[in-house]
């Protein structure tokens, strides 16, 4: 290609075009056609009629539902609050009841209601729906936590470009300390949004802040470490890890049982799911499952620290060689005082331009 400027522009267009493809595949693949896949539900009752009814529901639904029977309504409520089932049906010829926990997933509760409403209609009686774990009135759909996740993610991965590119001249120790500070600020913003601003968290705000810090710090340390090796491709990599795969598997909009197996599998160990499910446990389900989700976030943070440590070891000999080369550079500068400063200034300008372009490529979604 004859024009260096045109080649430069086309090269930088690769990243947004790949983002376009990736976002389309991820978001549309995860959200466009939600369908139940082994959605866990329960039927209350120990009589033979209840077991026959449960088997009939299972046979009709096929792989869409996993149906079990429980002895009492209280057992069903316990399963809902531990999020082992999405809904529980209490058969009755006069007043059938459907138990749901919409704080776990508003979409899941809606899906279960669509399954059992026609069942009650066949009996000619209305279906009573009881929500045993409702979200707060300030977040009626329970999806506010998903949008909090988005805010924390953008604040974290967008900061990586500044720390990695603009801070490339700093030592890894300084960049790591900056990452630590940025994660505290981002998580503090998240706590303010969740508490005083939008009132998503009516209690345990300190715990929400703690999980937000673990989540943000993990992203920042992974990004700062990866930047040493990926440079301007770090932004695209962070988008894949913490937007395309992360938002779609978090369970913030659809539980994994309403998604295909790929995103459902990621939900079991991805950091966004750890944050969303952890905060749900803290706010609505009496800390049930909280420790597992906290450990998920801790593992991601440890992975970030390991990547950052490897990057520091990789940079150390390079910086040492660069420092060792300075005496020779100084001699050359003395021999050709007019040319050496110009070359150094050109190199420095190129580095600064590359850093600015990388920062500008950071996209918030």
Overall geometry: elongated
* Oligomeric organization of the protein chains: single chain
Radius of gyration: 26 Å
The total strand number stands at 5
Low-confidence stretches: 328-336
Strand order of the largest sheet: 2-1-3-4-5
Mean pLDDT, all residues: 87
Class of secondary structure makeup: alpha/beta
Which percent range describes the beta-strand content? 5-15%
Q: Please, how many helices?
A: 14
**Topology order in helix (H) and strand (E) letters:** HEHEHEEHEHHHHHHHHHH
Helix content: 55-70%
The termini sit apart by 33 Å
The largest sheet is: 5 strands, mixed
Notes on the protein architecture:
With 365 residues, this protein is α/β, with parallel strands linked by helices. The protein is built from 14 helices and five strands. The protein has helices at 4-31, 48-61, 73-81, 106-122, 144-166, 172-197, 205-230, 234-244, 246-249, 261-266, 271-284, 290-324, 326-335, 339-360, and strands at residues 39-44, 65-70, 87-90, 97-100, 128-131. A five-stranded mixed beta sheet has the order 2-1-3-4-5, sandwiched between helices. Strand 1, helix 2 (48-61) and strand 2 form a beta-alpha-beta unit. Helix 5 (144-166) runs parallel beside helix 7 and helix 7 packs antiparallel against helix 11 (271-284). The two termini are 33 Å apart. 38% of the residues are buried. Mean pLDDT is 87; it is low at 328-336.
């Amino acid at each position: 290609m004859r024009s260096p400027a045109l080649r430069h522009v086309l090269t930088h267009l690769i990243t947004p075009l790949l983002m376009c493809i990736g976002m389309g595949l991820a978001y549309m693949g995860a959200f466009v056609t939600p369908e139940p896949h082994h959605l866990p539900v329960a039927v209350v009752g120990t009589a033979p009629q209840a077991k026959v009814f449960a088997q009939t529901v299972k046979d009709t639904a096929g792989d869409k539902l996993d149906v079990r029977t429980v002895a009492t309504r209280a057992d069903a409520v316990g399963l809902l609050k531990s999020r082992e089932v999405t809904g529980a049906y209490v058969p009755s010829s006069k007043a059938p009841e459907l138990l749901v926990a919409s704080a776990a997933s508003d979409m899941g509760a809606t899906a279960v209601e669509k399954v059992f409403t026609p069942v009650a209609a066949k009996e000619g009686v209305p279906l009573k729906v009881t929500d045993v774990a409702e979200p707060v009135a300030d977040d009626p759909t329970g999806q506010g936590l998903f949008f909090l996740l988005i805010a924390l993610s953008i604040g974290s991965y967008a900061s990586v470009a500044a720390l990695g590119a603009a801070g490339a001249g700093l030592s890894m120790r300084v960049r790591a300390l900056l990452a630590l500070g940025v994660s505290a600020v981002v998580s503090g913003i998240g706590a303010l949004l969740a508490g005083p601003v939008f009132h998503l968290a009516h209690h345990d705000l300190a715990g929400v802040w703690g999980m937000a810090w673990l989540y943000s710090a993990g992203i920042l340390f992974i990004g700062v470490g990866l930047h040493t090796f990926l440079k301007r491709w770090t932004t695209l990599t962070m988008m894949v890890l913490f937007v395309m795969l992360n938002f779609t598997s978090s369970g913030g909009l659809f539980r994994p049982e309403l998604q295909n197996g790929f995103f459902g599998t990621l939900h079991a160990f991805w950091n966004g799911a750890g944050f969303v499910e952890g905060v749900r446990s803290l706010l609505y389900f009496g800390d049930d499952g909280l420790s597992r989700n906290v450990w998920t976030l801790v593992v991601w943070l440890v992975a970030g620290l390991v990547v950052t440590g490897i990057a520091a070891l990789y940079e150390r000999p390079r910086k040492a060689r660069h420092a060792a080369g300075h005496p020779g550079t100084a001699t050359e500068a003395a021999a050709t005082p007019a040319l050496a400063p110009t070359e150094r200034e050109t190199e420095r300008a190129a580095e600064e331009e590359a850093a600015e372009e990388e920062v500008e490529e950071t996209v918030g979604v």
